[in-house]
Amino acid sequence: MVSGNSAIRGSRVGAGPMGEQDRGFHADRVAISYWDAQGNETIRYFAANLPDEEIPEVIDSPSTGLPAGRDKANPPSLSKTEPYKTHLAYVKERRTEEEAAALLEEALQQLRARRGTSAPE
């Protein structure tokens, strides 16, 4: 015997006193198809009275995570991803000590200017 659950057998959890009609499940809808670069189709439903400019032209495809557009013949191209950088690549990009000191001094001057205080003596 199961105890501690207040749901009545056959009822939907969280349904509440409203019926499906009150929640808009039977509202007029229009189906829009989106295609990604791999040819996968995703169908999204929008309210029929929604203006065309509010329906997005591009979405993220839930199956691949790629951008998907309405035009089946010309779907959005694959997004450009940065290649993985090794630690050495980051080390080569590091600033010299003089550049770092100049950046720190510039940031401190901006903070002092915002606070209205002068440089310490």
Describe the structure.
The chain is α+β, with helices and mostly antiparallel strands. The chain has helices at 20-23, 87-93, 97-115, and strands spanning 29-36, 41-47, 58-60, 67-69. The protein has a four-stranded antiparallel beta sheet with strand order 2-1-4-3, with no helix packed on it. Strand 1 (29-36) and strand 2 form a beta hairpin.
Q: Strand content of the residues, in percent?
A: 15-25%
The major sheet is characterized as: 4 strands, antiparallel
**Going across the major beta sheet, what is the strand order?**
2-1-4-3
Distance between the termini: 79 Å
Summed up, the helix count is: 3
Q: Mean pLDDT across all residues, rounded?
A: 78
Compute the number of strand runs.
4
Task: Tell me the helix content.
Answer: 10-25%
Structural class assignment: alpha+beta
| Model regions low in confidence, pLDDT < 50 over at least 5 residues | none
Specify the overall morphology: elongated
**Helix-strand pattern, N to C?**
HEEEEHH
* C-alpha-based Rg, rounded: 28 Å
Pfam families: RbpA
Protein name: RNA polymerase-binding protein RbpA
Function: Binds to RNA polymerase (RNAP), stimulating transcription from principal, but not alternative sigma factor promoters.
Keywords: Transcription, Transcription regulation
Task: Indicate the topology.
Layout: H1 20-23, E1 29-36, E2 41-47, E3 58-60, E4 67-69, H2 87-93, H3 97-115
Antiparallel strand pairs: 1-2, 1-4, 3-4
